[in-house]
Every structure is written in structure tokens, then in C-alpha cells.
């Protein structure tokens, strides 16, 4: 049974690969035997992390919104490995507020900048479309492959704005409309692509993770954890098993599905 989880001899590309979760996706795929293409806007960091993983892996700069660059990267991967077996569409724009004094104004729906909304659509939706179109077409020609679109619990439910209130009950900022709107779009795009390429042997699934603990304010971690069945936020490596499962033959009869790994956030 464990052999079905092996990715030996397969080539996997991860976008947004040097982020907190992206690095763990890469490590999991590499540990399962895949040759991993570490793709990120930060080419220097991508190359350094690929070297850390080992000589069979490749680091490359990639802007998922640049069609020509996505095609060039595809050619480079094929020139080195000759195939593409797994695509993890992990790159995403999750708005951050650098000036806390402006947080409420910048994240309130009534004043949220339309330019920021459009930027999120470009990265989170168009970027997934482009990478799936280019890298997935190679899989369709091969007659096999697995595409994993990383969404979010906020693609399933509306944000609970109360978890962003501090100990004094003050709203520190709001989760904006952009992230849930784009992640919800990804979940249905997965269904489209699974139906479209099913006969070509390409499986397409969504992974919807919950929030990862990463030095957030103590009040936020407490608020978030209280809303989960398991009573905690995720650790960065909590999604490694899910990624390997979706990438491998262990999920061979699974396509068009949304695997929710959120500590029970959406169960309550």
C-alpha cells in the first residue's frame, strides 16, 4: 500500500515555493521521491532552496501572471527532465497591511482599493489558469498527471471578522473580499478542469488548508484556535501528507474533489 504514495521518477513543480507552506510542499514531494521544481518570484531564494533539497531538484524564477515566462519555464523543465507529472498551484496574493494605523481603512470592504482586488484576481485566479493551461497541457499529452490547486477554508465559508479583534474587543483589521472570492473561484475551476481533462488521464483536485501559526499576535492565535475542533492552528508541515496523497497514485480515483485540512474549522 505504501508504494502508492511513492513519487519516484516523477517531476513536480510547486509555485510560490519558497513561502512557509510552499517549502513544506516541496520537502514532502522530494521526500516521496519526486524531482521538484522550486518556482518562485524570488529566483535567488528558489535556487538556494532547491540546492538545499539536493542536486536532482531545480530552482527557477517564475511570475505566474506572465504567460511568456510560464511557457519559458515549461520549456526549461522539459529540457532538463523531459516530463511534468505534478503541478501544485500554491502561489497566491494574501494581502498584508504594512501600516497598522491604516489597517481598518485599507481592509474595510467600503474602502478596499479596487486595484488590490484586481491584483488578487491576477495572481490567485489568472496565475492558476495560466500554469494549469501550460503545464497541464504537457500532462494531457503524456496521458497522466496530477494538478493540485491550493485554495483555503475561506473559499468555503465567509471570514469570521471577530477573530481579528484584540483583547480589548477592538477590530484590528478585516479579512478582505479578495482572498475568499479568489479562493472560491479556484475550487470551481478545479471542477471544470477535472471534467475537461479527465479522459486525458489528468487528475485535478483542490487542497483547502486552514490557517498556519506563524508568529501572529497572541490574541489572534487564541481566537482562531478556539474555532477549530482540534483547538489549534496548523503547523507548517501539517499539509505534507495531503500534498503527497493528492500527487501520488494513492489518490488515483480522486478528481474534482476538495480536500479540506483545517483542524475542523469548517466542521463547526
How does this model look, in words?
Pfam families: adh_short_C2. Keywords: Oxidoreductase. InterPro entries: NAD(P)-bd_dom_sf, Sc_DH/Rdtase_CS, SDR_fam. The chain has 268 residues and is of the alpha/beta class. The chain has one domain (2-260): 3-Layer(aba) Sandwich (Rossmann fold). Helix content is 41%, strand content 13%. It is built from eight helices and seven strands. The protein has helices spanning 20-31, 43-53, 67-81, 103-107, 114-142, 178-197, 218-226, 240-247, and strands at residues 11-14, 35-40, 58-61, 86-89, 145-150, 202-209, 258-261. A seven-stranded parallel sheet has the order 3-2-1-4-5-6-7, sandwiched between helices. Strand 1 (11-14), helix 1 and strand 2 (35-40) form a beta-alpha-beta unit. The longest helix is centred in the middle third of the chain and has 29 residues, at 114-142. The protein is globular, with a radius of gyration of 18 Å. The relative contact order is 0.15. The model has no long low-confidence stretch (mean pLDDT 95).
Topology:
Layout: E1 11-14, H1 20-31, E2 35-40, H2 43-53, E3 58-61, H3 67-81, E4 86-89, H4 103-107, H5 114-142, E5 145-150, H6 178-197, E6 202-209, H7 218-226, H8 240-247, E7 258-261
Parallel strand pairs: 1-2, 1-4, 2-3, 4-5, 5-6, 6-7
Question: What is the straight-line distance between the termini?
Answer: 33 Å
* Mean pLDDT figure: 95
Strand arrangement within the widest β-sheet reads: 3-2-1-4-5-6-7
Order of secondary-structure elements: EHEHEHEHHEHEHHE
Number of structural domains: 1
Q: Determine and state the CATH class.
A: Alpha Beta
Work out the helicity level.
40-55%
Q: Judging by the overall fold, what is the CATH architecture? A: 3-Layer(aba) Sandwich
GO molecular function, one term: oxidoreductase activity, acting on the CH-OH group of donors, NAD or NADP as acceptor
Family: Belongs to the short-chain dehydrogenases/reductases (SDR) family.
Keywords: Oxidoreductase
Protein name: Short-chain dehydrogenase
